[in-house]
Amino acid sequence: MVKRKLTRRQAWRAEKIQAERLARSEKKVSNIENNLEGSELGPEQPGRVITRYGAQVDIEDAEHNIYRCLLRRNLPSPVCGDCVVWQAGINQTGVVVAVEPRQTLLERPDADNQIKPVAANINQILVVAAPPPALDLDLINGYLVAAEMTGIQPVLVFNKIDLLEKDSLKKIKDRLKPYQDIGYTVIYASCKTSRGLNDLVKYLQGKTSILVGQSGVGKSSLIQELLPEEELRVGALSESSGLGRHTTTATRLYHFPAGGELIDSPGVRSFRLGHVSKNQLTHGFIEFRPYLGQCKFSDCRHKVEPDCAIREAVDTGNISHERYDSYQRILATQENGR
Ligand SMILES: Nc1nc2c(ncn2[C@@H]2O[C@H](COP(=O)(O)OP(=O)(O)OP(=O)(O)O)[C@@H](O)[C@H]2O)c(=O)[nH]1
Ligand SMILES: [Mg+2]
Ligand SMILES: [Zn+2]
Fold first, then answer.
1. Distance (Å, rounded) from C-alpha 34 to C-alpha 89?
2. Global pTM?
3. What CATH number belongs to 105-264?
4. What letter would DSSP give residue 4?
């Protein structure tokens, strides 16, 4: 992203807004602290992190009641989906005293390239794409690599098919066919016509799934369609850029009545993998695996080297050209300063 140079006035305003935000958040914390102060805390009990706001979390108890909780100092930082031990205070507040070990953890780098946990204990990632914004295969592939690295099952969801003419939909299906060929599930859906939503439900039951992808692809809309009794914020696309406006600001867990959980997450503009070795990246392209170790040179970059098993597989059609090109692009981005 191009860094804009702020004028002095803009910089002053940005600082002022920051300070006000901080003050608001500190005030909320001290409100909870006042509620908790002097009140007897209840017994330790298990809970689930529904969402995280700065230094506070919303914890759900076994009866699905929500408590705004503070975190005991020196705790590992809990995220959406974490199982915790907590104690209730008065007025629906409480204190988190321990975070249980995680089964899985999805992480991604933030704007400053710091790796940040997004959600814990998920076992399925729905990578959502849609016709606006344009199909970004590098982003999809980045998520697939992240999923493969953490051992979480990915499913591709192509939403808003109501917006496509038959021919355009066929073109998209042709581009996504290689994903089905290598074993990934691709679901075509529309929140507007409900097409594909029954298919989607089959994959969601009994699982803890997170919806990820670009801003504006309809992640929140999909959850809203599936869970009409919830109230999610859904945003219009920007008219000038056709991109989403980052309507969802916090990752949040919703219960699926038929069993299972859905986690909504804020959209991204692009997906950077963070600290991933070349080896991890290559393994994350699962169709490359049978050919690894078969190149003439053990440090083959699968580019121009002679007797490269990967390039031969591309030439014979066993590896998709688009996936291979995307692999090289992601590798170059990883190596060029991130
Ligand atoms: N035509 C059509 N529009 C859709 C569909 N699904 C979502 N939209 C619209 O797309 C826009 C963005 O939807 P959101 O659900 O806010 O997208 P999001 O992925 O949650 O975006 P962020 O929260 O910013 O990451 C809204 O205007 C929705 O009404 C669909 O299937 N068809
Ligand atoms: Mg959203
Ligand atoms: Zn090679």
1. 10
2. 0.86
3. 3.40.50.300
4. P
Beta-bridge mates of residue 154 = 125
C-alpha 252/C-alpha 79 separation (Å) is: 10
| Cβ neighbours of residue 303 closer than 8 Å, sequence gap 6 or more | 311, 328
Question: What pLDDT, in 10s, does the model give residues 78-105?
Answer: 999 999 999 998 888 999 999 999 999 9
What is the CA(265)–ligand 2 centre distance, in A?
Answer: 7
Domain 278-335 has what CATH class? Answer: mainly alpha
Distance spanning both ends of the chain, measured CA to CA: 11
Residues with beta carbon inside 6 Å of ligand 1?
159-160, 162-163, 190-192, 215-221, 234-237, 244, 246-248, 266-267
Fold of 41-101: OB fold (Dihydrolipoamide Acetyltransferase, E2P) (2.40.50)
Per residue in 142-169, pLDDT tens? Answer: 999 999 998 999 999 999 999 999 999 9
